[in-house]
Specification:
The protein is of the alpha/beta class. The protein contains 13 helices and 13 strands. The strands form 3 sheets. It has a 7-stranded mixed β-sheet with strand order 5-4-3-6-7-12-13, sandwiched between helices. The longest helix is centred in the middle third of the chain and has 21 residues, at 174-194.
Amino acid sequence: MSKGNIIRILDQPSDPITRKESQIMPHGKVLVAQGGGPTAVINQSMAGVVLEARKFRNVELVYGAYHGVSGIINEEFLDLTQETSHNIEMVARTPSSALGSTRDKPDLKYCQEIFKVLKAHGIGYFFYIGGNDSSDTVRIVSEEARRAGYPLRCIHIPKTIDNDLVGNDHTPGYPSAARFVAQAFMGANLDNAALPGVYLAVVMGRHAGFLTAAAALGKKFPDDGPHLIYLPERVFSVEKFLADVKATYDKYGRCVIAASEGIHDEQGAPIISQLTTEVERDAHGNMQLSGTGALADLLCDEIKRNLGIKRVRGDTFGYLQRSFMGCVSDVDQREAREVGEKAVQYAMWGDRDGSVAIKRTGFYSVDYQLVPLENVAGKTRVMEDEFIAPSGTDVTDAFRMYLRPLLGSGMPDEYRLRLNKVAKILNPAR
């Protein structure tokens, strides 16, 4: 991509994007990639990039990297210019990563190889849809391009069900996963009320409790579960946990529990490491917190052994949370599309690299900002204190107000019989 190979875009319509009266946009190819865990709406962001980029005359071709950054390294590109708009729209409504994903966590050397490939293929615009690690990759590649004097616009597009990107009110993927968690606990609570006992489910989120906290949105009546919610933002004690379960069981004759996979002790050690000596690790060496179902089983064993409650059941929602097709938030779909579109607009009309961030502007409305990559890259957001109840085992109304509009339209509702009991005749004392 030569410096002289440019066109001038004149008289652009008014837009919050900072631009000059005459904006210079380089010719080149667009490359979009998806990284990390899939979500129910990540393809909306991909579609937003592809369809918006194809509107600009200076865009020569639109490529998709097959399996994220590993696909870039291996030069496995798909020519999305040849895809029909109709099929892209159909893919946009389909959960999971249509381009494939990767768990590779690029370091400087890896990113230098990424840059070599981008330069060789004449990529002028690089869009990477992902979470914390993906934003850091974009930052390093951006710095390499700047150091080499190569005209490359790098934009990070937010995505994570964990909702742990700093600078964002929330992240695409989280509302749909939260909707799944809320509905799953609504059903689990009704099941538990019909056949009382203890039910515990472990929810994803690692070091952020937003997704686990979403279980509270499944409650309607005061005695509904989850009765106890355990978040990684608070220290977890097995002894306190057992006391909480006993007190709840004694009060209601049953107990429904939502526990984050990231719960830890005072030293920050994951609880699963306290309960077992056999801990699995992922490709990055991170402890496998809940993927095996071990944490739920171990906590249930503690309840059975110490409290003597016979009916104790545990689940691990696992991958079901990420791409469940049956309960996708329409708000999430719309915003996931818009962050992809805004990323292209910032790239074409803006003057800097960055990460697209969602900002809440009212109840309920959002706007988008391009924030510096260094403000997001490698950082982790956790739940604010105002969202966590003083007990440490529940959420506040502030959190419920925060999450409710994100869940979208058509949320199911539960009803119950009023239990107008008839007087006994044969055994009135029973």
